[in-house]
Known about the structure:
This protein is of the alpha/beta class. It has four domains: 89 residues, DNA polymerase, domain 1, CATH 1.10.150; 96 residues, CATH 2.40.50.140; 195 residues, 3-Layer(aba) Sandwich (Rossmann fold); 157 residues, Rossmann fold. 39% of the residues lie in helices and 19% in strands. The strands form four sheets. Strands 12-13-11-14-15-10-16 form a seven-stranded parallel β-sheet, sandwiched between helices. A six-stranded parallel β-sheet has the order 17-22-21-18-20-19, sandwiched between helices. The protein has a five-stranded mixed barrel with strand order 3-5-6-8-7. Strand 19, helix 17 and strand 20 form a beta-alpha-beta unit. The structure holds adenosine-5'-diphosphate and magnesium ion. The site of magnesium ion has 4 residues, from helix 10.
Amino acid sequence: MEFQEYVNFLNSELTVIKGVGEKKSALFAKLGINCVWDLLYYFPYEHEDRRSFYKIATCPDNKLCCIKAIPKGKLLKKNIRKNIALFTLTVADNSGLVNVKFFSNPYYKISFDLDTEYVFFGRMVTGYGKREFEMKSYEKSGGGNTGVMLPVYHASAGLGQNVIRKTVRDALGGVDYLVDSLPESVISRYNLCTIDEAVRQMHLPDSEQALARARARLVFEELFVLQLALMFLKSRRTENSGLVFQKISVAADFAKKLPFELTDSQKQVINEICTDFRSGKPMNRLLQGDVGSGKTVVAAAVMYTAHANGYQSAMMAPTEILAQQHYNTLTSFFGDSLNIALLTGSTGKKKKLLADIKDGKYDIVVGTHALIEGNVEFANLGLCITDEQHRFGVNQRARLFEKGMTPHVLVMSATPIPRTLSLILYGDLDVSIINTLPKGREPIDTFCVKSDMHNRVYGFVKKQLDEGRQCYVVCPLVEKSDTMDVTSSVEFEEELRSKVLPGYRIGLLHGKMKAAQKDEIMTAFKNLELDLLVSTTVIEVGVDVPNANIIVIENAERFGLSQLHQLRGRVGRGQHKSYCILVTDADNKETSERMSIMTATNDGFKISQKDLELRGCGEFFGTRQHGLPELKVANLFTDIDVLKLVQQACGEILAEDPLLESGDMAMIRARIQKLFAEYDNFNIFN
Ligand code: ADP
Ligand code: MG
């Protein structure tokens, strides 16, 4: 096969494989498999060990294995529920008899030939002294699925295991040899197997050892592509010389004017940032601090410093509510001494504003994604800050700092992430941490209750409101839904207003409202003109009203752990003892686990670690908690050792070939480009 022919084959639609027509190809596309390459990288999530055979008499209990036996009677069927029946079949080998049991749809046609040998895969179990064989699958003896480690794929309606297995086998048969994209030197140095061996063994392994080796290679490669891209981005940036800010003591002058004393952590972080400002290299720093730790004031101090050195700053937030709040906060910090602009999707008179930003009339521009649009230009942008960084992609971050001539970049996030993850994600960033809360903060007391406790919950809320505090009530939905039995904010506000808390000033806030309306409500809440705010997750990040000390989260089971922690972070921001009440009637194991973690700890780091464990990495990545493409093979808990090797390898490569231009990097370059283009429409080598 010529190289070009090979590349074409990998990029072809699945219809090039015999037996795959348009219809099947469309079903594969639903699984995200659009070409032969995708199929080859569609790895099984487990293998059934069809190599170990036992005699019925000596088969151990509870071990997945095969028995070879002959049906000795009629297949019995017992309907259990609609579309589910329990089937029983008596089978025998020369050592004895056993009942094979399995569940299936009663309408499927299932039949066994008497006096024909079958292989049954499953496990022997003993209950009440009786042995039975719980079957997972079967085939006639001599069929192709016996004697191997059989791959099991995530299948879908219309695409069963055997179809996927056959298609993968045919695809593998269509390629003589998969060409490595990792450079030869890396493969030998890190003792990896070839990609050809790895991909084939992932699907159809010869042994457990071969499978482990194949997986190790793919984990290495997956992390390598991601890490090299991030380290490349970082090196490309630091190559350019940075703006030097000489006047640094101004940050301290700013701090002196604040109504509170900065915490030691905040001071430390401001110092780290100012050191970067003076270093001559562009800063590229992550500021991580739990909810309520006081990141905004750090941002203000360093933007003030940028201004004193003659540069503009831009600060980007993920929601309009948050952008507006930052604008208000900064305006109150700086008064008339700095010119601050607010730029969001709903900003009016934009033309004039944009012209003034370009002319340098504004010192600070606060905004949403609107900031990174093409028509926004700065006179001399020296510092870019993204708040709640996990809500943005690498791409968006890059687009912001490309508005200046290598400005300093600070990204802030409250979503604390485990060390492994931060190593990968922020391989391209330096990290500063605020690890203490401002003085006088008490931990938030968190309770989990059932909805039949509503009266007591709102009785308690009432007491807090009477003492002058304010309350958030969070509902999962905006409006009533016909399909879900879940509290909606619109309905619930009505109920609170008319029945539960009549006479109290209650407001409603949700994402379907116009920006001006949202702002009006938020401002009223902040100005103590409202006692209680019923809201959706639009308040999830950043919102800061220190007088609010109680948050009730309805249908708490609908929220992930990190989300609950963020929501809870809306309270405990002032001197008042604060409370979080999780209301849920769900009693499944997963929900109760989540709730008990919430009630047990206030530590965001522990919570995100747990979140990752409970949801699995795939989903954690899927929800874009971080702004990077998904990992398919690597596991963030178990593969940290591989990650360290990968970082070493990437470091060595970049030291020798900083622009990744050498011939043996060509394929990796293409992989990186494709990955980021698909994920984020981002051309990394530009
Ligand atoms: P986050 O880190 O979640 O973004 P914020 O920056 O919104 O937190 O700060 C939370 C609250 O704490 C704000 O009301 C802020 O004014 C206040 N705050 C910040 N730093 C201090 C401090 N050193 N002492 C007292 N209050 C502070
Ligand atoms: Mg914040």
